[in-house]
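Q: Two folds, back to back.
A: First:
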Amino acid sequence: MSPLKNMGIRAKIIAAMVVLLVFIGLLSFWTTHMHEKKSLLTNMQDNAVILNRALIISITNQKSIGEKVNLQTLVEDLSLTEGIFGVWVIDNNFRITSATFRDQVGEVASSRFISEALEKGYYVCGFDTKMGEEVYSAVYPLKKGGKILGVLEVAFELREYQHAHSRDRIQLAAQMKRDSRIMAESLSYSIENMRDVNELIHIQRLVDRLTAESEIISQVMIVDDDSRIIACDDLNRVGVIADDKGVRAIINGASIYTRLFPSKKAYMVDMPLRIGDEFKGVVSIGYDATDYYTHLSQIFDFGLLITGMGILMGILLSFQVANPIIMPIQRLTGVTKRLAEGDLSQRAAVSSKDEVGALASAFNRMAEDLAHSKDEIDQYSKTLEEKVRQRTRELEISNQELRAIQNELVEANMAKSEFLSIASHEFRTPLTTVLGYSELLLTRALTESQKKEFLGFINEESIRLSKIVDDLLDISRIESQKDFGFVKKPVQLAEVLLENIKFYSRAEIGPRIITDMEQDLPLVSADGDKIGQVIKNLIDNAIKYSLGGDIVCKAFVRDNMVWISVQDQGIGISQQDLSRVFDKFFRVKRKETDQISGTGLGLPIVKYIVEFHDGEIDIESKQGKGTTIGFGLPRL
């Protein structure tokens, strides 16, 4: 849109005329093209449908003839076997399609064995009478895909049986029953296989002959009802599953499917292959569409010629229409530019009474008003600008001061509230214990062991109070940026770790503390007492939040730094709280932590001491799985 806005009026008029003529030309071309395309496609489709139907009829008729001739030959050959009276092939309408005696072909068979085999679909045998002679008859159903297509009957002569002694007839009857079933099954299998093989050979020969003799057919493909190619002009594709949109459409019930392949210049038509009312597969024929695309190309070239002539005529016509409008506007534009540069004495020449003349008159009135307004504005601007600048500076200074004061008040109020809440809670618990046990010591007659026990409680709570006070003093010095009085010297961190672990190892209760330290760790420059304070804080936290598992303390070297880590199996820290554990007075708010004391100052002090030593802190935790926190100091 931006280039179109920047175009001049002449260019816009020319563009509009050209676009209009091009649109008309393209619309005419498209209408002609689609009409011709539809006509050509309809003609090709009609021819394709006729040829497809002729191919389907040829496949069906030739297959039926080939089956009957080959089947009769097989029946007559088997009839020459010694002991066989005759062989009959009967369809499911009780009509004989092949027989040892050719004059019986086409007659309707009447036998209780045949009726029973067709009705129930299983093998039947027994004594019967054929053409006035007693025989042993075996009837076997011919099936394909679970459907009964007919039956096969084999009759054996009974000369040996009739001349045998009565005690041998039972054995001979059993032997005939067994032999008749073997013969019937073998013969039915041969007939079914012969039908399939002959059908495929016939179809492939028909496809080869059609593609070789036709100049317009580029591809022929016959697909069965399982989408497998059974005949094709490309023998390498026979037996392959046809992954084709048209084949899938016909198998799903479509009566015809057509499409064009521009890259191959071919037109493909797919139609169902049916024998009677039974769906057998798909017939796909591809036709050479070179003439179709040649004709469309000629139409396209003609359309381009018409469009080019329309563009040329549009440009010439646009110049004739645009010049009477553009020239006055260009003159007015020149006056406008000079007026914009500051020459308010400029006026436009009015040469007509049309819309352009009215525009020029309005422009002149506007120029006079601008000249008058400019004088008034100049007088006010001399004093107004200075007043605005001065007032703006005063407001900015006042706003900055107010924002700074407001932020300080908010932070101070939050810090005061947080400190009072935590301090009152942490001081109240040990003070209550000290007051309670000291009152008992003063008012009750106690044994020496009781006094010793109570004094022990008072001592523990006093130590706890002293630690809280120390933490508050440390955080106060940190906030006021006072020096902690660090005294750095070469220190072995493993020794500092062991000294502090001894304090906890003497406790009678609590989790077990396990150490895992590398040998010959390098020295670091540090204040041993302050690093000991860091280790104690980390172990205290691990003990407080432990669920009873072991606490593992490690000392190792990583990335040119000596590291101390403390790992517990406690309640862990969620990912949303993990980034805030080093904030002052922050404690995780969960049911498991309600009964655990703490000011929330331990880890902020740890962070300050480690960072003062140019060290790093690393923490990993998963809720319910424990926490691992460590620090590293640069090696000497």
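A: Second:
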Amino acid sequence: MNIKAQKENKICQYCQKNFTIEIGELNLYAKTQTEIPTTCHQCRLKQHLSFWVFGKFRKGTSDLSGDGLITILPENARYPIYSISEWYGDKWDAKDYGCDYNPSRSFFEQLKELQEKIPRPHQMGSSNTNCEWCDDVWSSKNCYLSRAMEECENLYYSYRNIKVKNSIDSIVSYTSEKCYEISDCSNCFKVFYSYHSKDCIDSYFLYDCRNCQDCFMSWNLRNKRFCIENVQYSKEEYENKLKEYDLGSYDNVQELKKRFHEIIQKEVVHRENFNLKVQNSFGNYLMSTKDCHNCNTVSDSEECFNCTRGLKNKSNIDADGCWHSELLGNCSCCVQAYSLKYSIWSSSRNSEYLDLCVECDSCFGCVGLKKQKYCILNKQYSEEEFYHLKNKIINDMKARGEYGKFLPYNMSLCPFNLSTAYFYFQETEEKEIKSLGGYWLTINEAHIEGLSTDDLPDHIKDVEDDIITKALICKETGWRFNVARNELAFYKENNIPLPRYHFDLRIKNQFKLFSVLNPYLYYCTFCKKEITAFYDVKWNYQKIACEDCYKQNIS
């Protein structure tokens, strides 16, 4: 690969915008032996995350046994669906679907045909108890309609949590209990409607608070108790004022949310980013990283470029949703992988264009293989035959302009608007995705009868126990949802009004806090120097501080 000693300016093949590939990126593309991309970082990330299913929970049946299962994979999927135990079982072999390479056809077309024959497991996860209505769940118990969690218990309608218990609507939070509608909170107990807070107890509407107890509608506080809108009260005064808010009323809570939003815009001092223990790194939500650039939500990693959501990675570039990996280039959702390129959902080594391959080495264009070597399109070859055919395929792909490109949108595992990509790119339109060959699904549940959430009692004390037998219709999506028995008990115990929106929409709206991947230009509210911060200008935040000023004035 001919790497020039200067950055390269390009025009994105998809969005037609100008983008630049810096020297550091060029060096890492060379190190990983990855082709220089023809699309900008945003378009690459969007395409990668379109292969990460968020989905919509549904009942289905295994295409192997006919047994019932619960999955987020789409109905009428392009591929068979097996239960996870069946997928890892010995009743099928992905090599049985091996096929010869046809040089007269696009390699991507042949790989897509293979992909459509290979089954996928109905969900991800292991070591769980009573978590059937969940996905990507690990070592958890009694969780319901939640995704991406580890060591959680009694968690409902939540996304991306570790060690969170007895909570509802928890997003990207850790080691917390009995919380409701929290985002980026950790070590909290009985905290409600709060963001970016740690070590807090018995509080409501907190933003960026630490070690606070019995506080309400407060921000940037440290080691405080009995505060309302950052004003100090006595214990008796605080308790009496709190009763005035009547938090069991849905209408009252909506008014309080409006007030809280105004405070976040005008009063909160927002830190420049949410990085911790970083060295020569740039991005947001970085922790214990070194030499990581243009990264988001990456931890314990070194020398990475253009990576979103990763852990314990080294020398990766354009690797999104990848964990415990090294020397990855242009990959999505690969774990425990080494020297892997243009691949998805694989834990393998020294390979290219893999999908759902486990512990494979030196394979090319394979799907669903386990512990195999020297395979192409799932067909076994000798070492000499493998490298000869691999080189021929690469040359053919280069002639067609295919080689070095990520898997096309028409190989995505679900409709774009039901993928993780839609959480980060919520303004994406159906026509754009379809023009790229992708999928989109409009879900119409108008035929389903139920109770409009507009007709629910305003106050939780007026909700009858039979509500758990009724189908509720989301006032925005029209989707049906229910209130579970344990969920209702949680609401009544904590004086929380019933939700009016479908739980997936609630997750999507809460996630907007984490969806900003590109920084905006601001000026520090204290020292007035120019800074870059990860807050959309549309949010109209008035006070943003550089790291030094934030530490001096808030921490």
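Q: And?
A: The first helix runs from residue 23 to 32.
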